[in-house]
Amino acid sequence: MVETFLLVLLIFMIIGSIIAIETKNLLSSVISCGIVGAGVSIAFLMLGAPDIAITQVVVEILILVILIRATITIDNTGIEAHWDTFSVVSSLIFFGLFLVFAFLAVQDLAPFGKPLMRVSQQYLETGLQKTGAANIVASVVLDFRGYDTLGEATVIFTSIVGAFVILRRRGRKARKEADTEKVGILTEEEIREDYEEFRE
Amino acid sequence: MATKPELMSSENPKGMTPVVKTVVRFVMGIIFMFGWYIILYGHLTPGGGFAGGTILACGYVILTLAFGKELALGKMGDMTASIIDNTCAFLFVTIPLIGIAFGFFFLNFVPHGKPFNLVSAGFIPLYNIIIGLKVTSSLFAIFIALAIFGRFVSTLVEEAEDEE
Amino acid sequence: MILYFLTLVLFVMGVYCLIAKKNIIKKIIGLTITDYAINLFIIMIGYRENGIAPILFKNMTMEELTERGVDPLPQALVLTSIVIGLAVLALMTAICLRLYEKYKTFDMSEINRLKG
Fold it and tell me: A97, B47, B86, C29: which could form a disulfide with B38 (CB 3.0–4.6 Å)?
């Protein structure tokens, strides 16, 4: 029963992604990407992962808001007028080959519904007794595999700091020449510095 | 952190229509409470630090969209967000180092308590709170930066069209 | 098996959109679809037949959890991967806005022509 429901959801998601890829209007494309994300969240709920489903819904909403807010105010139709023949044809050939080999490789995985759980069986049996948490996924994320969470916090921190450095309004060159008067994101300090330089 | 009352009134031309402002005023407190519930009970029910932190960031985003960015920056300014972000990243590395004194890195040294209570499971609730605050401040700060920069880019577009 | 194969078809469509389209925003959308497909594939590997979520409630025996619980390890990996996808998307959008400010277009072949 779960398998047929997942099959219908996957076909729905593939149709949604075809619409997202081929349509010319950017707003429809972003909204179809949201449809794929909502389908993925329902699939997570069917597969027995409720906290992943919560996280996926909220993150997908933020993805839609960021994409629409930051870029759709700029008008950019008329870009896809002509194909780049080489990249389209070569990518189709390579992905056809990839799918043939993927079909053969997928036969070697464990059948759907009977996973080999060599390590996780011990997490399920001794999780409550060793850590005291009732949510086994939380105990795996933060206690048994806490080092991976440390690495993940580092990756998020680095990418956010990198995004801030890219979005800085006045780079170092403009600050030396000081020919613009536009104000940066951290406004107060820069205004005070410029004012003190001007007074000297 | 107090906001001027005229920033939140319905006659202020910045932001969206009065219908949106009224609804957001009701719903905002529920969103924040729900986010904190998911963070604090992350070791008993589904959820955890990442999901709860993202829900809180969505609460700040809906404030920015409905009332304009001055109000959201009044509630949590960019300097505050930066300080919270860096402090939580620092704490997340330092607390496991204390565990080395008791055994090995990332040892759960806080006493476990009875299961199914709110105060139980060692330092897992503490880590959930640290990660929740970190994710909230990061995502809110990057959203404000993108919104300000996006408006700057569209003023560039208008200036270029005026010159032509 | 057909479920695994359809998930890989979704992945391939995301990568096709990343390669063959010229608009930068379409490339970002392709990367997002690839992200969703891979997370779904990883969680599908850990599903157990008639499975329940690996969370203990009161008045639940341990045998029920160990015999029917799904695999918690892929869920721990995917939980962090979803939030990393969001942070990387913020970084990519920041780069896109800078590119627009410098070259005044979102078209990748125009940017390749004008570079320098």
Answer: B47
Which residues from chain B sit within 8 angstroms of residue C82, using beta carbons?
50
- B107 touches B95 (CB < 8 A): no
CB-CB neighbors (< 8 A) of C86 in chain A? 59, 62-63
Tally the domains of chain A: 3
Q: CA neighbours within 13 Å on the CB side: how many for A167? A: 29
Provide the residue range defining the domain that includes A20. Answer: 1-73
| Residues A31-53 pLDDT 10s | 999 999 999 999 999 999 999 99
Q: What is the ipTM of this complex?
A: 0.91
Q: How far, in Å, CA of C47 to CA of C52, rounded?
A: 9
Residue B139 to residue C82, Cβ atoms within 8 A:
no
Closest residue on chain C to B53 (Cα): C83
Confidence of residue B1 (pLDDT cuts 50, 70, 90): very low
Q: pTM to 2 decimals? A: 0.86
What band does B161 get if pLDDT is binned at 50, 70 and 90? low
Of A24, A58, A73, the position where a domain reaches its end is A73
A44/A1 same-domain check: yes
H or E segment and range at residue B58: helix B49-67
Q: Clarify whether residues A49 and A14 are in a common domain.
A: yes
Q: Is residue B10 within 8 Å of residue B18, measured between CB atoms? A: yes
**Cβ–Cβ gap B46/C83 under 8 Å:** no
CB-nearest partner of A150 from B54, B79, B93:
B93
